[in-house]
Here is the input.
Amino acid sequence: MAPPLLMLRDIELTFGGTPLLEGTAFSVTAGERLCLVGRNGSGKSTLLKIAAGLIEMDDGERFVQPGTSIRYLPQEPDLSAYASTLDYVEAGLDAGSDPYRPQYLLSELGLNGTEDPKQLSGGEARRAALARVLAPEPDILLLDEPTNHLDLTAIEWLEKELKSIRSAMVLISHDRRFLENITRTTVWIYQGETHRLDEGFAGFEAWRDGMLEQQVVERHKLDRKIVREMEWLRQGVPARRKRNQGRLRALGDLRQQRGEQRALAGSVQMTVGETRTSGKLVVEAKGVGKSYGGPQIVENLDVRILRGDRLAIVGPNGAGKTTLLKLLTGALKPDSGTIKLGTKLEMVTLDQQRDSLDNTWTLADALTGGHGDSVTVGGQQKHVIGYMKDFLFLPEQARTPIGKLSGGERGRLMLARALAQTSNLLVLDEPTNDLDLETLDLLQEMLADYVGTVLLVSHDRDFIDRVAVSTLGFEGDGLWIEYAGGYSDMMSQRHHGAGGPQKAAKKSKSGKSTKSGGGRTAKQKMSFKDKHALETLPDRMDALQAKIAELRMLLADPDFFTRDADLFHTTVAKLQKADDDMAAAEEHWLSLEMLRDELEGK
Here is the structure.
C-alpha cells in the first residue's frame, strides 16, 4: 500500500467543555478520493481545517509527507485583499504552475477575471475560490461544500474537472449525486470518532444503517447484563469470597462502560402544519412573458399546477428561476399572458437567502415570534424547547442569537419556522443548502407525506429526483419546458429529443401559440347553461362558505361530542359534504372563467 501523503491520528478537540473529536483519524494516499460525512455539528469542517493546518488540536498527530502541496477550499472564502478575481486566483499558484490555467478556470466558471471582489455574490466568490484551489493542481485538495451556490451546469463541470486531475481529494458535501460520482472512500464521523469504509458514498448509507443497528443490539445486551448483575447484587455479596468481589468490580466496570457511551444520535422530527385543502387548481399560467428591459426571462409559458403536484424548477444561475417562482405564486405580475391562482391557498415560503432571519433574534424568539414560550404545530401547542429538540437544538441554545448559528443550524431553523406554519402550498427556494444528509432524508419523507402542493427550486439532482413529479427546465431564450419526472428523467427526455416540438411552439406574430391542438376557436360560444352557471356560482359559493363557517363553529365546541355524539358525527359528515361541494363549485367556476377568457381572446 502506498504511504499516506497526509495522516491524522488520535485527534482530540474540545469546544466549550464538550468533546467534539475523540481519537479521530484518517489518512489520504496519492490520488485517493475520500468524502467526510456526518451530521451537522459532528466536526467535519473542523477536522478538514485541522488537516489543512488551520486549527490546532488539543492532542493527536498531523503528518504531511515532505513536499506535498495542499489547497483548502473554505465555505466562506475571503477575497477582500485582492484587486480582481484573477489576482486572487493567481496568488494561489505554485512556482511551476501553468500561468494560463487561472484564466481558463475562471472562464469555465463564468467569470472573466476583472471582477471586483467587493462586488461579488456568494456564488461568484465560491467560483473564484474554486478556480484558486484548482489552478495549481495540488497533491491534495481539501474541499468544504464545493457545490454550494453552484448551479447544475457548474456542478457537472466541476465533476468532470475533478475526475480529470491527478490530485487526491477530501470532500465534504450534502450533494449525494456529486459524492457518488466522485468518491471511492468514505469516512464517517459519528459521536466524535471516525469509521472508514473503503467504498465510495454510494455504499455508505446501507453500511451506516447496519452499524447503527448493531450498536442498538450491543447497547441492549449491555443493559440486560447490568440488570442481571444488579439482581445478583441485591441478593447479597459474601465479602470473604474473592470471586464475588471480582464480580462486583466487574459490575462497576459495566456501569462505567455504559456511562461512557454517548447516547445514540437523535434525528430531526419534522411535522408540517397542514391546513384546509386547496381547490383542485393551484396555478394556471397561459402565454406568460416577463423581462426586465433586456432578454426575455420567461416567454410564452403555459403550465398548469394541480393540487398535490410537486414541481421542480431547474436552470442555471441567472436564468430566472426565482423570478419564475414569484410569477407562479402571484408575487410578481407578468408582462404578458395571464396567471390564475386557485382558491383557499395558504402558502409558506422557504427563501434561499434566509432573509427573514434577524441576527439579533434569539433562537426561541425566531420560533415563537417573540410571544410566549410555545409553538403551534399542526394545530397542537408545543413548548418551544421541545420543538427545538425536534430539530436537534440543545435547550441551552434557546437564548443564542441567530447571528452565532452555523450555516447548518440556520438551515434547520428556517425549516422549523416554515414547517410550523399551516399551509397547503410549500414554496421551497434552495431548501437543501447547508443541510446534512440525514436531515435531507427526513425533509424528503415529509414532502412525500405532505398532502398539499410543492414548488421547488434546487440544484440538488438527487433531491429533485426523490421529490419532484415533474420538472420545469430552462431551454434558453426565455423558454421553459415541463418534463414528467425528476432531473434524471428530464435529462433522459432531452437526450432522446423529447420536447423538440414544444421548443418550436413559440408565439406567432399574431400572439397565438403555433402548437397544434390549440383548443376552441373564437367562433365557439358559451352555452346558456354555462353562462347561467357562471352568473350563479359565486352566490352558491358564498352560501357554502357561510355554511362551512357555521358547521366549523359548532365543531369547535369542546363539549359537543360529550353532549350528543350522534349529532357530532352528523355535523362532521355535513361539513365534509359542504367542503366537497365547495371544491366542486370552485373548480366548475374556474373552468368556466378560463373558457370565457379563451373565447374572448384574453
Summary: Residues 239-243, 261-265, 498-523 have pLDDT under 50 and may be disordered. The radius of gyration is 30 Å.
